[in-house]
Structure formats: C-alpha cells, structure tokens
Amino acid sequence: MQKIARAVRRVARSTSAVASVPLLVPLAIVGVVLFRMEGVSSQVQRRVTRAQDPGVRAGAVGAGAPIAGLTAREQDYFLAGKGEFEEAEEVDEGLGPRLNLDSCLGCHSQPATGGTSPSVNPQVAFATKNGGTDVLPSFITANGPAREARFVLNRDGTADGGVHALFTITGRVGSGRCSLPQPDFERQVANRNVIFRIPTPTFGLGLVEQIPDSAITAGISDNGPTKSALGIRGRANFAVAGRTVSGQTNNNGNDGTVARFGWKAQNKSLLLFAGEAYNVEMGISNELFPTERDETPNCLLATHPNSITNPEATTTLESVSPIEKFAFFMRLLAPPTPSRDTPGGAPSIANGKSLFSAVGCTLCHAPSFTTGNSAITALRYKPVNLYSDLLLHDMGGLADGISQGQAGPSEFRTAPLWGLGQRIFFLHDGRTSDLVAAIRAHQSTRSEANAVIDGFQALSEDQKQDLLNFLRSL
Q: What does the pLDDT read at residue 93?
C-alpha cells in the first residue's frame, strides 16, 4: 500500500489542475486501480526486469480485406479501387512534375494494401527509377519510414506549412525536356525548417467517415471533471465563427462540419483525402484538384486535369474516376482484426487493457464509436473500435509548427490505435519504432498527456509490459 500511495502522490504532484481537487481524480483513476492490478500481477508471479516493446506482432495479418456484408456490386467497386490503389503511375499518365512516390501502395503497404509505411522505404529506389536524376534527401533512408516534407516558414518568415515534394520527373522516361530542381532540403534541415509526416493507415476508414459529428463533439465533455483535473482538453477541427448556416467554419469551407482524417484531422471526407493525396503525393491533377502544383510549361506532359470521370466509358466502373475508386477502396476496407492472445497471452492482454483505461489513456484514445446511417448497409450502425476520440489535443513538445484548418502548431488528432500491433513506425514523423519511446514522447512541457504518462510511469514493470502487450495486440 505504501508503494501505491507513493505512486499516486507522484501523479498528483505532476498535475497542476489537481491543486483545486486534491488527489480525488488521481486516486480514482490511478490509485484504486493500481491496488486492484497489483493483486492481479502478484497472482501471475512474473519477473519482468524492464518492460519493452514486443515489436511488430507476428501471425495473421488480419487486415487488407473488404468489410463484411458487401453486396456483389460493392465488392466490384472495392476490387476496382484496390487495383487503382496498387498501380504505379507513369509520366505519360500525369505523374508529377513534382511528387513523393508513384503509387499509393508504396506508402500504404504495411502489413497489407491500405496500411502504412513498410520496413523497406520505396522512396529510396524511386529516386533513380526510370532514369530519374533526383538526389536522395538525408532524411529518407532504406530502413526508415516513407515521408513527406513540409517547410514551417517561408523565406520572409511567414507561415508555410505546405508539402514540398521530394522528387521530380526530370530525366525519367517520357519526361522530354522537363528540367526541375529539387528543393534545397539540406539547407532547410540545417535551419530546422523542415518537418515530416508519415502515411496514416486507411483500414476501416469508411466506418470513421460515418461517425456522426454529434458523437465526436460529445466526446469533448465526456468525463469532463476527470479530464479537467488531468489537464486534458480536446476540440474538433472547426471553430465557431462567421455567418455559416451551422455557425461553424472549418478547413472545408462553410459547411461547418467536423473534419477527421489526417494527422491534424484536416480532411473531411475520403474523397477529399484521395484527391489531395493524388495531387500532392503523386502530382496527378484531378477533378477535386484540377491544376498542377508546378506549372512549368515543359513539364505538363499529360491532359489537364490528368484524372477525371470518363463519360465515354462503356461500363459504370470504367467511367468512375481514379479518386472515386480510391475513396471506394478505403471506404469499404475492413478495420484491422486484433489478436486475442498475441503477444504475451490472453491474461496479459486483458490486464493491459484494464490498465490502459485505469491510467487514463482512454480519455483521449476512446475505445469505440458507432456509425450512423449509411447508404452502404455494411457501414450502417456499426461499431468503430478505433481507440481515438478524433479530437485535436495540444501535445506540447511534439509540436511541428504547422497549422492545418483550426489545428494549431502543437495540436494533433488523437491517433487511432487499431492496427498498432503491426505498425513499424510511430508518431507523426516516424521518429521511432519503439512503442515505449513513442509513449514517453507524449510527455513534455504543455502536453495534455503529461499526467497520464505519469500514471503509466508509476506502474510496475510487469504492469507496463501488460499494457504494451495489449497495444501490440490491437
């Protein structure tokens, strides 16, 4: 009991908000549960000297398949979208003139099509693919994550925040007389003016798209007193302002609804997400983004926009534009399947799940939502076990200096944890492959996660291991 009391006091001292509610919240969410979990751990009689990340979970992939309950026609759309998603584009199809890679699959292949960055970075080989003359930036490595680069500031000191493509089509087959310089990435690195983003997994995103706005915004006030005492806030990516119908504006114009996709919840829908990625990551213009990001005359080598609906097609599927097919693929992609017993065994995972809630992680990583109505029966009123509240939170020292929509420089959407067991790289920039390091990185000056991480640190090594096993089971 003395050990537990000391742990609780440490959590209390680290939480400034507790000054007005002495120990009540920490005792409720840490002390009582630590007492209960201490008994569980003593029954197991394990001897973990130091908890560590079990690593990428082995066994069945449990991802990449269509969601259950699709009709035959919906299956056709899923497969057509999957084919487009996996296809490598060519210069004569509109690739470039500036880009980060030539396919969606390259960045979204771990552990299956639609996932996140693989163990071998495809951007390394692409630098010289088909005669390319690009120099590989120092932050792109063979065993590192696929990345996009953003500059924080412009030369005049104003905010930039945009993606600066790593590569060009210069020298590649079909590029003709196109000659483009790469950005001076090494200077930007030296000036600490470049930040990175890694690909987010797309599994189960059709379910996320169908979560009602009201369910997301309700999460702001859920467990309000507990959150307040621990310094946790959270807000959706919109702000009440202007004269819109709903009284809210966001990065999607004046519709006033909640955006939810991307590291900063900057995109509203999967179609918008697909169209932006096609243009920004591969340089292929489309009906949502009809102009090229670089309009150097000698480098516009395909029709403009490159990817559109084809009214002359003889079948419905042939007429659908690639970005619509991308959106269908992501919308109909099943969520990842967690493991019941790997790693560590079922009792360890169950104990870790209880500790995850007890420490306070679920205050932001909300375990589940339920979808609303949908034209697709398979997405209608379904559970969404994503472990995210889809809200923005101030992460303090993890700040990247970039604002998107209403998300500020240190705010990020709570990253969904489903599928985490088979991810290789963590945090928005992929800086670590160690789950323990990723958890500890949540703690810094002004981070909303500080008190919760104190609670994690107060656990015994056995308890930490159980919690890590639970996360890797997802």
A: 94
